[in-house]
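Class, study these two lines:
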Amino acid sequence: QDSPEKWTQISRKARSILLKTDSYVFVDEVSQHLLALIERVGASEVTVLMNGPTGSGKEVLARLTHDFSPRRSGPFVPVNCAALPESLAESLLFGHAKGAFTGAAKSTIGFFERAEGGTLFLDEIGELSLQIQAKLLRGIQEKEITPVGNSEARPVNVRVVSATNRDLGKSIKFGTFREDLYFRISTFRINVPGLNERRDDILPLANFFLVKYENGTREHRFTPDATAKLLGYEWPGNVRELENVIQRAIVLSDDDFIDADNLFFDEVIDFGEDSSQLAGESYSNAGRDILRGTTKSYPLGNQSTQPDRKNLQSAMDANEFRVIAETLRTCRTRKE
């Protein structure tokens, strides 16, 4: 006979699996307005440019744009333009013919053709070179591409959604981004706010990541102090930083509760003079504090949590050391 505990465990596992396949959290009023806009824009065929800070969830919104579109049954192909090697960017985007360059043993399709009938998401589009931008403009405008080493153009049926954390207007003034491409990719422009501008999403997202990353043996909960600490922080790294903080907290937690002492933030670093010397001092001081059982205090509630931008590298190094040292101090050894 199945026990209630067994069914509780099955239910918890099912909930975890569901959350791991659905990463959309829109609780704040700003987020709900954004979601309504994404739903309307997604249903059309216009090009979309999302502009927002790093880690604010632009790819999540791009996927939703695809899911709301008539192309939802087609592929969604995300491309990080900043990670494309400059010498291979053209081949990776548009494909190449056999023998087009050394090592091209066979013809290969690029990201454009992989996204045929679906959506091509170009993240950090501002990082592309002017030469690639010219070919990209033709692909979007004429709906045809020419693979490297091929003289004949191929038609493509792709919707392009782009994203950037740059001010492309300034890039145009500096001559690093084509104005004609900008107007072609930004038929509809969406400004994605940082997490600090949608604070009602902080706790729902934190609980989402708590369930997503727990191992299934525990059901973690936040203490009031931990909740206050999460709400009192400015989140310069946005949703990505929050995700990192929760993953670390789960590793450091000894029981079912996540306390304020388990939350370590990604401190903003400012590279100043004598940073290497200060980094060494911070390592030493942080180590002594943790091994004595004391940790750095953090302001709660509405107290200011703006990071000190001095001695940046030392702040990051000290934060990393605290996490490692705290884990070593609290974990049991085999002999224990």
The chain has 13 helices and nine strands. Strands lie at 48-51, 76-80, 119-123, 144-145, 154-155, 159-164, 188-191, 221-222, 257-258.
